[in-house]
Amino acid sequence: MKKNVCLLLVLLALSACKKEKWEPEGPTDVRIRNLQENEIMLNVVINTAGLRDTVGNVKKLGVAEPGKTSEYRRVSIAFPKAEITAEINGETFSTEPVNSTYMHYMGLMRITYEVEIRDMENRILGIKDIVTDEALKP
User: Fold this and answer.
1) What residues have CB less than 8 Å from 100, skipping those under 6 apart?
2) 60 within a domain of the structure (yes/no)
3) Of the listed ranges 50-59, 86-95, 126-135, the one predicted with least confidence
4) 2 lies in some domain
5) Cα–Cα dist 26/14, whole Å
6) pLDDT tens digits, residue range 3-37?
7) How many domains does the chain have?
8) Is residue 67 part of a domain?
């Protein structure tokens, strides 16, 4: 009888330690909106983890037409700033590298980074705003 009670307690303890499907910091669905009026952004790549481990956080977003958004891609963690690279008129443009050490993660959300050309001469992109589209549903 004591063995059965002990076994039952162990089983209850193990089932209570079950890991949640999603962690509070992610995943996050990300996309970009091209704020330029005439330039098409080709081969868009986003790194949402900054200097942290980038496994699952570097995603190809494809093409972003002027004034339109790319498709959502799921990343394991996202921050208010991201490193974004795109080809515009045959030239490679990029935001500056991001150090996400003290940033707060976006969490279980669908977000849109609104991207514009900051400096055409130096080929620098900038994130004008981040739009939280909706909460992610498990």
Assistant:
1) 49, 50, 51, 52, 79, 81
2) yes
3) 50-59
4) no
5) 24
6) 776 676 676 666 665 555 667 777 999 999 999 99
7) 1
8) yes
